[in-house]
Amino acid sequence: MVINPTCNIVGLILGYKNSFKKFIKYHASYKFLQKSLTFNNIFILSFVIFIIIVSMKLDRSISLVLALFISATVFGWGKTGHRVVGYVAQQHLTKKASKLIDAILSDYSLEMSGNYLDFIRSDTNYRFMNSWHYVSIPDGKRYEDITPNAKGDVIAKIEELILELKTKDFKIVKDEEFAIMALVHLVGDLHQPLHVGLAEDRGGNKVKVEWFGESTNLHHVWDSEIINHQELSYTEWGNHINRNVDNLKVASWQSSTVRDWAHESQDLRKDCYDFGDYVNLKYSYNFRHLHTVELRLEQAGVRLAGLLNHIYG
After folding, report:
1. What average pLDDT does this structure show over 217-238?
2. Is the pLDDT of residue 91 over 90?
């Protein structure tokens, strides 16, 4: 059983008190969070945990630190986009594929599995996967024109995962469950324009900007800030962007290749830098780019479903 890292740490600090253990056992289930993870519910959950800590008569300073730790961890909602991709994909799976995948994923739904590759980044045993999340392609070139990263990149690893899921001969990951979770995440990454970025600014990570006056970087704006600004749960996001997708769009999007998806992101990335010298990004930047974010999340989910249907369905 994979345990929510935040809950696990808090449980250890509290010495696995019985009442807290029961609470965590229930709320650590990602199946529970699947349909109800909204901003309001997160706030309520954090508040309830705080009350439990206080009721256990811990030292007051420890209680405050734990409460702040929980809130800061939960509100790191850079994960929403990956949940949206998995949620959209779930809507486009065949019944057969959905049933088989659900049986393989022991601890996560498809939409929650997409964040697993980020969850394990703190484990040094998986640091060799760091380069899997992106690819750097200079302006004026395509993937075929560059020397691939010897440690792997997002394009190469998606192609390898597809092959291993088809053959069931797992080499770059340990098993089929891991391969599916990795595929969900990496397909999402590839559709974010700055994950097919420029090496000189590390895909926008070195471009310092503000988001409504708060210091951040351009990459984070595209990973998280635009998505979070809409104040939607991942299910609300998925239902919103999925409503106008017809069979013609699905067929068209699923007929393209992994490298086509990368080249689309590469072609979109120049627009990410359209703010000039005005680095405090606000409503206008959000307005200009929201459609692109919606489109790329939807395309990622539909195309992920196409891959999984081809393998399982």
Report:
1. 97
2. yes
